[in-house]
Specification:
The complex is a heterodimer.
Chain A (H helix, E strand, L loop, with lengths): L16 H5 L4 H12 L20
Chain B lengths: L2 H6 L12 E5 L30 H18 L3 E7 L8 H14 L4 E8 L6 H10 L2 E5 L4 H4 L12 H14 L2 H5 E7 L6 H10 L4 E5 L16 H16 L6 E2 H10 L16 E4 L4 E3 L16 E2 L7 H5 L2 H4 L4 H4 L4 H4 L4 H4 L12 H18 L7
Parallel strand pairs in B: 1-2, 1-8, 2-3, 3-4, 4-5, 5-6, 6-7
Antiparallel strand pairs in B: 8-9, 9-10
Classes of the chains: A mainly alpha, B alpha/beta.
Chain lengths: ~55, ~375
């Protein structure tokens, strides 16, 4: 049931670069790399549901 | 960033964001009549009263507003999303004229042009225009005709998907510009289709970047054939598991990537996953300035044309519609451990006819997906990140 339990979200800063590079799941590893490369934001929109936009382009 | 900071971020409203993204409804009509469309078939008939196409006069007013707005707020990049109806109904000549006006008058910021189309009018001329003006486009496709054409129909009721697939196949043969200018595809979820088979179909048809959209709806304007959110959760989880199994061959799937990135500490980037809608406005063909277009299915004030490019500026809508207050999350959301994944869901999905301060209509599906993602992260991330 949503909202009934509390779990800790991961903190990537607590892992070494070596540990993160050894993640064996390709999809997760790529996302971890993107998360670590990402800049802190303010939550403003950089995507709109009604248009497909790839920020990397 | 700590987990507490991540959870807080989606509803922080300490900084008033300025508009950085404008949706230009350059064509008010469409050559399709998709059954789920928020413009035509979810209760808002505002399109009937507006001009079919955006005039140069409106485009000039928009251009001047963007120019002065970016100058005033020191904005160096501004997104212009070209939308409709079906934007290609505008025709190449009017399209060029509008983009030329924007580029000529908006010299204070770099303009990024995006466009979403049903693809049925795409041809080499359009693709050359996109390349010339740097327009990146998305195409709407819902999968195999057998199911997709129950929704994606012409006004005579006939399905459109095979026509789209034939057109795309032809364009891929004759020009590299289709792939070069294509950002990806939008696919509205049909819960009767398996998530894995949907991804397989997209890959088989050479779509390597796409998103799965939840049908536009509210608590008082439910999706067609609504049986609750569970079947949407089932679709998403099945799709997510299949996506991961593809490993290095996995396509880009926006919803999965952004929800996972939310769980990994990135702020919300998409309006439907908690991005602040105060930084986006919509301009209709008559020059009216509105809020997030899909909110028109909520009716009332959200479906009226009040503000105008001729009288107001690009931040007026935020205060007029109380967008900060509108985005206040429900208690259930603020206490949810996975808020950083879904951001509370899309605003229209939170509307109960009176307030937006509710969990998403699709909350159980989003929660189940986020929980499933968290299990994946627990299984794959090193132990040190949980310390």
């Amino acid at each position: 049931m949503p909202g009934t339990k509390k779990v800790d979200l991961p903190d990537l800063d607590k892992a070494t670069v070596e540990e993160l590079s050894e993640i064996r799941d390709e999809v997760v590893r790529e996302l971890v790399e993107r998360a670590r490369a990402g800049r802190p934001g303010d939550g403003k929109i950089s995507g709109h549901d009604s248009v497909y936009h790839d920020k990397s382009t | 960033m700590t987990s507490a900071e991540m959870v807080d971020r989606p509803f922080q409203a300490s900084v008033e964001p300025h508009t950085r993204w404008i949706v230009l409804k350059v064509a008010q009509r469409c050559n399709l009549n998709c059954t789920y469309c928020y413009v035509y078939n979810r209760g808002d008939n505002g399109w009937r009263q507006r001009p079919k196409f955006m005039s140069p006069l409106v485009a000039e007013a928009v251009a001047e507003l963007i120019h002065s707005h970016c100058l005033k707020h020191d904005i160096d990049t501004f997104v212009v999303e070209i939308h409709g109806g079906e934007p290609l109904l505008l025709g190449p000549k009017r399209f060029r004229a509008i983009l030329d006006i924007l580029l000529k008058k908006c010299t204070s910021a770099r303009l990024v042009f995006l466009l979403q189309t049903n693809g049925l009018l795409l041809n080499e001329e359009w693709l050359e225009l996109f390349a010339r003006y740097g327009v990146r486009f998305g195409v709407s496709v819902d999968g195999a005709p057998e199911r997709a054409d129950l929704q994606r129909v012409y006004s005579n009721g006939n399905g459109s998907t095979q026509d789209l697939l034939d057109r795309i196949a032809q364009l891929r043969i004759v020009t590299p510009l289709f792939e070069k200018q294509l950002s990806g595809a939008l696919c509205v979820i049909d819960p009767q289709v398996g998530g894995a088979s949907m991804i397989k179909w997209m890959i088989e048809h050479d779509f390597r970047s796409f998103d799965f959209l939840l049908p536009d709806a509210t608590y008082v304007n439910l999706p067609a054939n609504w049986n609750g959110p569970t079947e949407y959760g089932r679709f998403l989880i099945e799709a997510f598991d299949y996506w991961r199994l593809l490993g290095v061959n996995a396509p880009r799937i926006r919803r999965f990537e952004l929800m996972m990135l939310g769980l990994l500490g990135q702020p919300p980037q998409l309006d439907s996953l908690g991005g602040d809608i105060r930084s986006l406005c919509v301009v209709e063909t008559n020059g009216s300035i509105g809020i997030l277009d899909t909110l028109r299915i909520c009716g009332g004030i959200y479906a009226t044309d009040v503000l105008s490019v001729f009288d107001d500026d690009l931040d007026t809508h935020s205060e007029y519609y109380s967008l900060g207050r509108m985005q206040t999350l429900s208690k259930k959301c603020t206490s949810c451990e996975y808020l950083s994944a879904c951001g509370g869901g899309y605003l229209p999905h939170r509307y109960d006819g009176d307030s937006f301060q509710n969990p998403s209509l699709y909350c159980d599906a989003l929660y189940a997906l986020a929980d499933h993602m968290m299990i994946t992260l627990k299984d794959t991330l090193p132990a040190s990140v949980w310390a």
